[in-house]
Amino acid sequence: MCVACDIDPAKAEGFAGSLVEMINQGALTIMVSMGHQLGLFDAMVGLAPSTSAEIAEKTGLHERYVREWLNAMAVGKIVEVDHSSTYFHLPQEHAMYLSRHFPGDNIALFSQYIPVLANVEQKVLHCFKNGGGVPYEEHGRFHEVMAEDSGQTILGALFDFILPLIPGLKEKLGSGINVLDIGCGSGKAMVMMAEYFPNSNFLGVDLCEEPLRNGRRAVEQKGLKNVRFQQGDLTMYKPEGRFDLITAFDAIHDQARPDLVLKTIFNCLEDNGVFLMQDIDASEKVYNNLGHPFGRLLYSISTLHCTTVSLAQGGMGLGTMWGTERANLMLKDAGFTQIQENRLDHDPMNCYFVVQK
Ligand SMILES: C[S@@+](CC[C@H](N)C(=O)[O-])C[C@H]1O[C@@H](n2cnc3c(N)ncnc32)[C@H](O)[C@@H]1O
Known about the structure:
Strand content: 5-15%
Mean pLDDT: 96
Largest sheet: 7 strands, mixed
Bound molecules: S-adenosylmethionine
Number of helices: 16
């Protein structure tokens, strides 16, 4: 068989070009992550065209590294450079998506997921060959980046868009109800609500001590008495008491046993209570996700994080892209009868399920 005879040269060349572009952009993503962590973008916001020495001085970083990073930013068309290759400038139209000065719009923070994922590459390779999973402790900065992510995605929209999805909820929180946050991580949303609604009581449960420590620190700093964090495996969790509101922010699909967790939520939710589940907005069928704007990122996160942390606990390994179809089925299996899907403009990656018995 003549393999080459069947080849469409333009198609082959186009594909090779897109692979090269992919590798270029992948490398650049690590540079963006570093710029975010080092505060380089923040320092360049509103700054006149400056030399690498001036930017290094402003940030307290070593000039040689800053110069190389600026060169990467320049060829990546993130930063502009003059003809003499001396002066670097971050245009305002770019700065607004790269800096902490523009909370809510900072896309640079998400670039941190790429090095976090790359950090476990070898361990996940091992699992491809031997099975099993890579547990949370091996995922480096994951909890830190996750907290920064949900701090941006949830907090800015919580009072104006997320809580209003449930009519009358803000009033109930004001009068005083019991709230449980499932897989709370550092519980930023819970802490924000606890501060705003002092008559309500909040309990956050998570498997991992590291984010819980950060959550407890925030509660202590704010002097809040109405929030508790509890370490526990939700797979066999038996909560004390019942709850009027249960939340799960991006926390069901990567559980070991999402089926059991959803059943527990059903059992400890008051009859007129509400379960608010933020989870990935995608289809369980990959074909339906071919045009998904975040599909490449989300299947990669799934392989290198969500699926493997679940398998590491002997779990189902549902994966990030379990799909709204599967979510609906599993919610129904847990006993819920009223399931409403909501999409919010600020968060194109997620669906907000409002679920009742
Ligand atoms: C994607 S993170 C979301 C964290 C948090 N809700 C947020 O928005 O920042 C998922 C969380 O689920 C927790 N988790 C995973 N498996 C768990 C289990 N079996 N029991 C309790 N928590 C678990 C993880 O530790 C992690 O903090």
